[in-house]
Amino acid sequence: MAARPSRPRLLLRHATLVAVSFVMLLPFYWVMKTAVTNENIYAYPPGIVPRDPHLFNFVDVWYLIPFPRYLLNSIVVSAIAVAGNVVLNAMAGYALTRQFPGRRAVLALFLSCMLIPFQATIIPAYLITAKMGLLNTYFGLAFPMLSTIICIFVFKAAFEAVPRSLIDAARLDGLSEWRIILRVLLPLSKPAIATNVILSFIWSWNNFLWPLLITRDPTMQTLPLGLARFLSYMEDTTGALYAFAVLVLAPSVLVFLMAQKEFIRGLTSGATKG
User: Is residue 22 part of a domain?
Assistant: First the structure.
């Protein structure tokens, strides 16, 4: 049994963690402070406490462009991407836990595909989306994000951690493969679900290049595209840009805080044994 660290060492560890957290949170505080003050970010010495805070920049963001429409588009596209990742990745992850001819070749193919950047496949992806008639649609905006290989392997690792005897017992009780996934594996894989939700939401929410290519109607644009349009209306862009960043960042932070414990467990599952 490992000895517990002494009190001075424990205090030093906590103080170090607090200092590191402060350094990491300082840029976020600076963005928020600039958004509510419009202060010159190059001023020296820099001001720590906000002076004369106001919400004018947030009002400009909301009214100078159709921000509610862009927000709705981003929410719908991200919701489709999250649903697709949870469903499709769970099915793919379960399939990879089964033994079938060519399983190792499929795993090698998936791993090799992770080495290919999306920019290298964006032209065939666009042609396929156009042939399917999905340009300027919510489903088309979410189409490349409906499944991600990293999240497939997260589900695969989570399903492999479930005792095989439990799956065999469910099969003896007459459950089909679909019901085994739905009623046995998914309830025991909440960390993997949380990991899929957070990663797919953030990737879809921040996606810029793909919506830029397939949207022709301004009313179908998402928040990253709305940022470029907003900056064309503003002369002094520093405070307004940071206000826009705060509004875009808030949903991602909220989603992460709601599922952070399960997310960490999902990423670290299988890292330790016993």
Answer: no
- Residue 235: which pLDDT band, with cuts at 50, 70 and 90? low
- CATH code for position 83: 1.10.3720.10
pLDDT digits (tens, 9 = 90+) for 100-118: 888 889 989 998 988 888 8
Instruction: Provide the domain limits for residue 112.
Output: 51-268
b/e 171-198 (16+ beta carbons within 10 angstroms → b): eeeebeeeebbeebbbeebebbbbbbbb
CB atoms < 10 A from the CB of 28, how many? Answer: 13
Own/partner contacts of 215-219, CB < 8 Å, gap of 24 or more, are 215/135, 215/136, 215/141, 216/135, 216/136, 217/136, 218/66, 219/66, 219/69, 219/73
Number of domains in the chain: 1
pTM of the model: 0.83
- Which of the four pLDDT bands, split at 50, 70 and 90, describes residue 232? confident
Give me the pLDDT at residue 2, please. Answer: 52
